[in-house]
Structure formats: C-alpha cells, structure tokens
Amino acid sequence: MGDLAIVTTLKPKEGGSTIKCPMLTSSNYIVWGIRMKNVLKVHKVWNIVETESEEEEKNDLAIGLMFQAIPETLVLQVGELNTAKKVWEAIRMRHVGAERVKEARLQTLMFEFDRLSMKDAEKIDDFAGRLSEISSKADVLGEEIEESKLVKKFLKSLPRKKYIHIVASLEQVLDLKTTSFEDIVGRLKVYEERGPKKKRHTKIMGNSCTQILSLHVSTMMNTKETEDGVEGPIEEEAVDVAMEAETHQG
C-alpha cells in the first residue's frame, strides 16, 4: 500500500469555496504535481512558479501553499530557497528518479504478467493468487489491470489439455467482458474439485468431442435442459458437459 496522504484544506483568496492541498508521499508525485498545480492556479500564483517572478507577496503565497502539501522533512530541505519556482523544481528533482524506478518496476511486472502461465500440477487457487498479487502490485505502482483483461489472462493461461472443454463452455455461455475475476475463479474451482467424472450416460459419438460440445452448449443457451422435472442453471449444465466430453476424449 502507498503512504497515507494527509489533505490540508485552504480557502482561496476570492470566493468562499475551499481547496484541498494534497500531501506529497513517496509514491504519488505525478498525481500530486497535477493537483498542486491546480491549487496554485486557483490561488492565482501558478505564473509565479512558471516565470520565477520576484513578486514578494505572490511568491510567499505560492511557497506557503507548497509547504502545506509536503512532509516536514522535505520542508527542512527546501526551506531556504527564496522563490516558488526554486522550491517547485527542488521537489521535482527529488522525485524524478523515484518515478523512473517506479516505471521500470512496472514494466518488469507487466512483462511477468504477460509470461505467467499455470503449471500442470498447480491448483486454481494458487494460480489465481499469483495473478491477483501481480494485479495488486501494479495498482500500487499506478497501473490498474482491468478485470476483463485479468479474466481473459486467467483462462488463456490454464493448461490446455486439462481445461480446454470447460474454458470453451464458459467462453460460449458467459460474457467475459462483464464476468468478475472472482466469479470465473469460483467456477473453475468447482470444476477442479468435481473432476472429469461422468455425470450422465449420454453417448457421445463421432470423432470430434469438441464439435459436439459446442453444439450442445449452443442448445443450452436457448433452452435449459430439464432433469427429473427440475430446471438447472445453464452454467452447471455446461460444466457437466465439459466434464463428460473430457472423460470420453480421455
């Protein structure tokens, strides 16, 4: 998790609204810079930072605003500088290096994400945990991995021989753009725990089980199958068919 950002509330020179000064931390410099620039503009002193004007009153106000938005340790480091521009540049230079390190870490992390795949003997929970860990680390570094991308990566990274039928079923039954990561992991855990056991005595004939599976799933999308007079969820039917197809093909 990132450092806690304390927010200081100030009133602009004109008008009764309040402006929040964001507190600079070790991990939020880019966002802090955008917000702080806006605060200085609202107080009509951003031009002082840009031009290094020596207009005393505006310089004092701009410096005062920045001192409200940086940690005490940093105030001690830049407190002797006499213009708002010098203070701004000193803050920037102390964080540019950190931002470059963060970008490098993010690139390494996303490379790891792209190459990640589930091992044959690995459990669904363990692999989902590895994906979630990368996603959390990326979020801390300022890169949010969209849930739909996480879902597709998860399905694509499963061992093909072991999960090909259930993945094909879920891709046809579910909308992967709106299905949550937790939901898709839960479905695969159910499949993993139940195993490729035969659930019915339906004969699957022909050379291609995959073609028959696709036809059956398409039918289920339009009409729910009934067993003993009770309707069952389409997704559970798809899981059963995937298991059955895998048993016959094996």
Structure, described:
The protein has 250 residues and is mainly alpha-helical. The protein has two domains: 8-97, no CATH class; 116-249, no CATH class. It is built from eleven helices and four strands, in the order E-E-H-H-H-H-H-H-H-H-H-H-E-E-H. The protein has helices spanning 29-42, 46-51, 56-67, 72-78, 84-115, 124-140, 147-156, 160-173, 181-194, 209-222, 234-249; strands spanning 8-10, 19-21, 226-227, 230-231.
Please name the defining characteristics of this protein.
mainly alpha; two-stranded antiparallel ribbon; 4 strands; 2 domains; single chain; 250 residues
In short:
The protein is mainly alpha-helical and about 250 residues long.
Task: Draw up the topology in text.
Elements: E1 8-10, E2 19-21, H1 29-42, H2 46-51, H3 56-67, H4 72-78, H5 84-115, H6 124-140, H7 147-156, H8 160-173, H9 181-194, H10 209-222, E3 226-227, E4 230-231, H11 234-249
Antiparallel strand pairs: 1-2, 3-4
Helix pairs in contact: 5-6, 8-10, 8-11, 10-11
